[in-house]
Design a protein that fits this description.
This protein is α/β, with parallel strands linked by helices and 292 residues long. It folds into two domains: 202 residues, Spore Coat Polysaccharide Biosynthesis Protein SpsA, Chain A, CATH 3.90.550; 81 residues, no CATH class. Helices cover 43% and strands 17% of the residues. An eight-stranded mixed β-sheet has the order 3-2-1-4-7-6-8-5, with helices on both faces. α9 packs across α11.
Length: 292
């Protein structure tokens, strides 16, 4: 076995079969493995996953009670993943990997022995060109599809380095860790740690003008708002003190002093979401720790 695939699935009963069905064409071999991490689902994702696993012995299902992607990532990296596997591919259950994408990610890591990660590029979406340009120019990862080397997995385990529970945009945190050579701080020039696999692409369904997708769009903006404030506070801490101050939960960073420095963005799209997010964060801080 040379590749292990980690699939994050939260309420993906409709799109999970398409995601799994594309993996063979993407390069998943007969001896490789797929791990479906079902986290906090309220639909029939688990039922669909069990049906898929019954038809494919390579699939293993892991049901996590908490709907949190950072927690699911930690579970895979620190508990589930086989440390003997040289390439670990991470993919969201609502996207489709292009033909040969897994092969391209593996080849990119093999061609760059010092790289901890290989990034794929978007092949769909209205903003795919600007998104791809951002990834290419900055050596960033997109959380939709990327690969980590076995050496990266070992480094996370040796350092007991976990993503904060409740964090938004885990790909940004992983990118920062890679670019600072797993140290944190202000030196983010280690671009050789992330290689872009330009032949590895992924597709996803764009939002449509209907009530269901409008609800999804509102949830997305709410998540982006929290990620905006998270970046301001978390990266300031990590740049000043390094990875030793990585919080166990993301809400630990929102101290009274930190919240006092945060302000909503002054634009018509983000202002109201930012204001609601700050109100929610301030309310969470007043709750007992057990209630969080």
């Amino acid at each position: 076995m040379s590749i292990s695939v980690c699939i994050f699935a939260r309420n993906e009963e409709q799109r999970l079969p398409q995601c799994l069905g594309a993996l063979d064409a993407a390069g998943l071999g007969a001896e490789d493995q797929s791990h479906i991490l079902i986290n906090g689902c309220t639909d029939d994702t688990a039922k669909v996953a069990r049906s898929l696993a019954a038809a494919d012995a390579r699939i293993t299902i892991h049901e996590l009670p908490i709907g949190d992607k950072a927690n699911a990532w930690n579970e895979y990296v620190h508990r589930i993943a086989d440390p003997a596997v040289p390439v670990h591919v991470f993919i969201d259950g609502d996207i489709t990997a292009s033909g040969g994408a897994i092969i391209a990610l593996e080849a990119a890591l093999r061609a760059s022995p010092e790289a901890y990660a290989a990034a794929a590029l978007p092949a769909a979406g209205r903003s795919r060109r600007s998104w791809a340009t951002l990834l290419l120019s900055n050596n960033y990862l997109s959380g939709n599809l990327y690969a980590l080397s076995g050496a990266a997995l070992a480094a996370f385990r040796q350092r007991a380095l976990r993503l904060p529970f409740g964090a938004k945009g885990e790909d940004g945190i992983i990118t920062y860790l890679m670019l600072t050579d797993m140290e944190g701080g202000t030196d983010d020039t280690h671009r050789h740690r992330i290689v872009i696999a330009e032949d590895a692409t992924f597709e996803f369904d764009s939002l449509q003008a209907n009530w269901r997708d409008l609800h999804l769009y509102r949830r997305r903006l709410r998540r982006y708002s929290e990620r905006h404030f998270q970046k301001q506070v978390l990266y300031r801490l990590l740049k000043e003190q390094g990875v030793r101050v990585m919080p166990e939960t993301i809400y630990d960073i929102y101290t009274k002093e930190a919240l006092a420095t945060l302000r909503p963005r002054l634009d018509p799209v983000n202002y109201w979401f930012d204001a609601a997010t700050l109100k929610r964060l301030r309310e969470k801080r007043r709750l007992p720790a057990a209630a969080l």
